[in-house]
Amino acid sequence: MSDRTALQVIVLSCPLERVRAVLAVLTERSLGEFFGDEDAVVLGEQYLAPEESFGSAEELAAELVAAAPEVAFLAWEDPRYKWLGTVFAYVPGVGQFTGPCDAQGTPLWTTDQVLGLLGPGNMLNADSEMQMGVAVFARIQELLTLGATTIGPT
């Protein structure tokens, strides 16, 4: 049996015509069984599967993008033992980000990594901002401020 950790996802935006596809992916991973509404996605709410194998966040991210490429989401697996977690953020039309994270899905960087990305005047350039997911996380923060919204399939 492989090591296990918690898998979490927040669906941030989803066109009505993709709700069934997203629900199918979440149901397959036993995410969302705690909300009690099997016919709707709650945007902005955290779905949790408490015992998944390492690497499951990457698989979930790939499944969501394949099933519903118009869906924005934040998926991560929690750190466990001496390993950091991994976060996958995806916003259609903006980009995607993958990196190490804490138990809340917040990306983590070492001081050396950040210093290595700084350009002249200790500023981030466009390439550095892309590597750090600045545009992706700015849009995610905007979507999170909308609060929880339940949407059903069409």
- What is the overall number of helices? 5
- Assembly type of the shown chains? single chain
Low-confidence stretches: none
Q: Total strand count, please?
A: 7
Q: State the end-to-end CA separation.
A: 40 Å
> Helices and strands: which structural class?
alpha+beta
Determine the mean pLDDT: 84
Tally of structural domains: 1
Strand fraction band? 25-35%
For the sheet with most strands, the description reads:
5 strands, antiparallel
Order of helices and strands: EHEEHEEEHHHE
> Percent of residues in helical segments?
25-40%
Rg, please? 16 Å
List the helices and strands and how they pair.
Layout lengths: L3 E10 L5 H10 L12 E3 L2 E8 L2 H12 L4 E6 L7 E7 L3 E7 L9 H7 L8 H7 L1 H11 L4 E3 L3
Helix pairs in contact: 1-2
Features:
154 residues; alpha+beta; two-stranded antiparallel ribbon; 7 strands; 29% strand
